[in-house]
Structures are given as structure tokens and as C-alpha cells.
Amino acid sequence: MTLLTRTEGAHAPSPVRPRRAPRLSTVPVFVFMVLVAGYMLLPVYWLLVSATKSQSDLVDTPGLLPAEWHLGDNLSALLTQQDGVYVRWLVNSLAYAGAGAAVGTLLAAMAGYALAVYEFKGREAVFSVILGGVLVPATALALPLFLLFAEVDATNTFWSVFLPSIVSPFGVYLSRIFAAASIPEEVIEAARIDGAGEWTIFRSIALRMMSPALVTVFLFQFVVIWNNFLLPLIMLQDEQLYPVTLGLFTWQSQTSRAPELQTLTLVGALVSVVPIVITFLLLQRYWRAGLAAGAVKS
To answer: What average pLDDT does this structure show over 29-53?
Structure first.
């Protein structure tokens, strides 16, 4: 009996190990990803190289090849051009994008929470209208918005750019999906039993549970407002109210009369990318969590 047991143990089949995919199969994928990354980063590289050149080197040297380093002089000229109007444009963009994204995120959170938690007549119809707003391009709304603000004599003001920027149908959609999946009804009912009001529940409980999705909404809204060009172009005439995108466009349109503005436009474009990069780096962890949660829960 013992011999039989030992024999069976000696001839017991070994566990089958999964076969590894041949390493050569990953080479085409790696090459493809490198090519895509190079294609995406090539404009950034060109901008970095061009921003370090003088005006003469910008014209005389190949665009992708570096020349003598003049980034410091270019930055100094950028900040002193027209009595430092670029700094004003940068502050305007930070005000439009920062405050607009913050207010827009709060409004989206409130609307999404209400659509997810409260049951009322016409809720799905309202949500369908919001989804329809996601599909409407911003360019189609620019002229109607101008006519509306012109009726109340509010064009060429800070509010004519700020107020339309705080509306985010996509933010409402993402907030509702995340609120419905991440806020248990039992938690809300327990808070109501304890005597908490609806605003207290939203502020103290819902906002904390929805924070990853709200960071994602804020980032998307910040980038959209920062890159907004058509709405300020239609609404604003005062150069002191321009965002950085519209200000650089005006400089670029004047390069035929003032060639030095070409270098300043490139340096200004490089500097304008820095706030977006900093914002993404600071909120990257929350942004990833919000995207992953939204993709799984929806």
C-alpha cells in the first residue's frame, strides 16, 4: 500500500505552466507606440527649440535643429512687450479657467447629485437634454451667446466669457453617473435619520465621495476654458480682457508688420502650456482615479 502510494506520487502529473507569448510579438507594438509618441511630441519639441532662438535664427536655421540659446532674452522681451500685456493675458486666462472650472464643477456636482439621488417627474427628460448638450459643439453656441449678451449690453466684459464657461453638460453627466454608483442610499437615509439637512448631506458626504470624479470634471473644464478661443474672439474688444489664446493670436496676425512678434508668440505659447502641465501634475493621482472609476461604474 505504501509502495503504491509512493508510486502514484512519483508519477503524479506536474501542473501545466502557461506558455509565455514570444517576445518578438511585443516589438511591433513597442515600435508603433514609439512612433505615435514621437508624432505627438514632435510639435512640443519644435516649440521648445523655436522658443530658444532669436528672430534671425528662427528664419535662417531649420526648425527642428537648435541654435544659439536666447530663451532668457526672449522671456524678458515677452514680459516687457506692450508694458507687460502678456502677464495681463495670463492672469485673465487663470481667472477665466480657474474660477470658471471651480464654479462649473460645483454646479455640475449639484446637478449630477440631484439627478442621481432625487426622483421627480421629468428627471430622465432633463438628463436627455443634458446629454444632447454634450453633442452640441461650442462653435455653434458662440453667436447665439453673443446676441444674448448684446441684448443686455454685457459684451466686452469679464462676465461675457466667464458665465458661459461655467456650464458643463459633460460634467453633469459624469457627476450623475458617479454619484449614482458611489453614494449608497443607506448612507443618505442614515444621515437624514440623524437630522442632517439635504445641503449638509451634499456638502459633508456626497462631495467627499464624488471627489475623484469632480477632480476629473475640473481638469477637463479647466483645459477647455484655457484653450477657448472663439468665444473671447466674438465677445471681447478690449485688449486688457483678452485671454492668452486670443492675445497670442493678435500678435501672430501682426507679424507681417512687426516680425519680432513671431518669436514672442512662440515663447508665449510655450509659457501658456506651463499652467496646464502644473495642474495635471498636481491633480494627476485624483484624475486617474476619477477616470478609472467613471469607466468602471458607467
So the answer is: 90
